[in-house]
């Protein structure tokens, strides 16, 4: 068995040591990533230095130039290994973060399920059905009451409309008669009528008499028209 296998086997056989929390494991992984990133930066700088040294010696000092290139190759190999290790650690960190998130989600969902169960324990389905039925009945009663209030209420609407119209016309006629009684007719003039001129004999006498009668009839019609206008003004 390799030393690495013995190390992991020995570390896993200890039951007294508790498993680390996800937060602690994530912190360790981030520290490792930071350390490897610094080592990666150091190797990149060493590679550049070895390349510059190989160029400096060139063919004049082949042995020093080749040694510089060999060191550059070793550094590049280590850099490649670090790149792979960083990829593995990044994958493990993301998996651990997802596992931690899923664990928290599952824990919270379980907590909510317990709370919901505790709430439902105090509920009786039969009581809920009875309550909903009672609510429905009360809503129906409220609807009937609203409809009853909205209907037109009639008190003594069974009268004969023809009788009412006849009574109304009678009252209007009585009121009209009272107003007609209170109308004051124009006063009769107190002055005596002018004396009739002497009739002329013959044709002139007949003509004057006819003209007088025409004027008298016109005056009478004028008085009647005035009376009618006064009556119409009162009626309106």
UniProtKB/TrEMBL annotation:
Segments of skewed composition (Low complexity): 205-219
GO cellular component: cytoplasmic side of plasma membrane; cytosol; ESCRT III complex; late endosome membrane; multivesicular body
Keyword entries, A-Z: Coiled coil, Cytoplasm, Endosome, Membrane, Protein transport, Transport
Entry keyword annotation includes Membrane: yes
Pfam family, one: Snf7
Gene3D superfamilies given in the database record: 6.10.250.1710, ESAT-6-like
Region (Disordered): 1-24, 173-236
Keyword Kinase: no
Example of a GO biological process term: vesicle budding from membrane
Topology of this chain in the membrane: Peripheral membrane protein
Compartments where found: Cytoplasm, Cytosol; Late endosome membrane
Protein family according to the UniProt entry: Belongs to the SNF7 family.
The protein's name in its UniProt record: CHM4C protein
Species assigned in the record: Crocuta crocuta (Spotted hyena)
Gene: Chmp4c
């Amino acid at each position: 068995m390799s030393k690495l296998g013995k190390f992991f086997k020995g570390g896993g056989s200890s039951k007294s040591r508790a498993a680390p929390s996800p937060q602690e494991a994530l912190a360790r992984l981030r520290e490792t990533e930071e350390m490897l990133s610094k080592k990666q930066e150091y190797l990149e700088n060493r590679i550049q230095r070895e390349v510059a040294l190989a160029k400096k010696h060139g063919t004049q000092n082949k042995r020093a130039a080749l040694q510089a290139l060999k060191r550059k190759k070793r550094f590049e190999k280590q850099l490649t290994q670090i790149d792979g290790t960083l990829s593995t650690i990044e994958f493990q960190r993301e998996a651990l973060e997802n596992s931690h998130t899923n664990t928290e989600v599952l824990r919270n969902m379980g907590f909510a399920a317990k709370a919901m169960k505790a709430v439902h324990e105090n509920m009786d389905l039969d009581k809920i059905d009875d309550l909903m039925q009672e609510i429905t009945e009360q809503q129906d009663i409220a609807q009937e009451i609203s409809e009853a209030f909205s209907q037109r209420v009639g008190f003594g609407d069974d009268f004969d409309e023809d009788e009412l119209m006849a009574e109304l016309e009678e009252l209007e006629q009585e009121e009209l008669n009272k107003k007609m009684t209170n109308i004051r007719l124009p006063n009769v003039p107190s002055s005596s009528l002018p004396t009739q001129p002497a009739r002329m004999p013959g044709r002139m006498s007949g003509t004057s008499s006819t003209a007088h009668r025409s004027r008298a009839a016109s005056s009478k019609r004028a008085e009647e028209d005035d009376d009618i206008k006064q009556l119409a003004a009162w009626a309106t």
